[in-house]
Model the fold of this input.
Amino acid sequence: MGDDDDTGDDEGDGVGDDTGDSDGNGGDGGDESRGGGDGGARGTEVSEAFGALVDELRSLEGFVLDHPAALDDDQYRAEAYRWIFSILQVGLDCFVWGDAANPRFVDIVGPYKKWGGDNADAFYEYAPLDPSRTYRVTGRRGDAVYLSLTVYGGPDDGRYSERIVGSINDRDLTFDPDGAFAFWLTPDPSTVDGPAIRLEPDAVCAITRDYVADASSSHRVEWRIEAIDPPPTWRNTTADVALGFRRALTWIRDQAAITPLGLGEPNTVDAPYPVPTATFGWAAGDAAYAMGSFALADGEALVLRGRSPECVFWNLCLWNPFLHTYNSDYDRVTINGTQVAFEPDGSWTLVVAADDPGHPNWLCTQGHAAGRLWFRWFLPAHTPDPIDARVVPIADVPTGPAS
Done:
């Protein structure tokens, strides 16, 4: 891997040793150092699937830069290129490397993997499933204030899932003194002891969620999945890889169909909608949500006032048009209920602005003149009340909760 250090002595560094000629092409090997031989793969199923995936990535550049929802600024363009490779990374992890016969959980969002509505307070992991198999899921709670696993159903071809097959959250589990827990994923729950999700014939994957009050210092949930009676051996084939490439391609196209997202009516928040009875994609089935947007001129702030119902966790995130959060390593770009300074009556005031107005609940737009707002409430006692949104001069923002 190296660090690009300049250690090259006359005897070589290993990679190019004993290759002969001075032009670095490996003596008589010609272009073979760059894969000049096709190894019998070109023109085959895997080669065609590879080519289609690469072509799609190239086409995404023009798609995001010329999209009707594109913003005319350098930050949008920088985030567009990063989004392309975020969804590629997720597509490869889930559909090319994933193994439903003997799976493991892999992170699908994070500080360097932003897409699809990530946030700084949560960790999400993915595992592919074979609905005919039985799996045991074990873990340790850590500092999570909420955790869940949701099984999704739908086509097994890389498309976003169409429905929730079943879910388990921390209210359904029993925890040992050290936070350990266990449950099952199986087509026949009568064959196992303890909590279980029944795998219907269209079950394709499991997504874990764990939320913490402070991701910078909290211990995340430790998740593990084990297939009962996995295959005794494994061999990879080009047919397997071709199928994975095709699924990843479908995944990327599905993501491009929903992003970049337009701003809608600026400086408003839509009425919160209740915990859904049906869902699209990999949304949670036990949360209420509200979406809004901001578009601020220099010297302006968006003041949001509301009240959250009793729930296990809630937060507000700022998103760009690609549905990913800003960089929380430098500024507060999300805020959750444990971080909010509340008003004496239990309501809250949140402030979205480019510069610090002196309010403890300030969220930084981090150079974005416009963006999306996203609220979520997990296991709310009722649907949240509407949120008031008003643009004011930044000098008129209150400096804190009313005394």
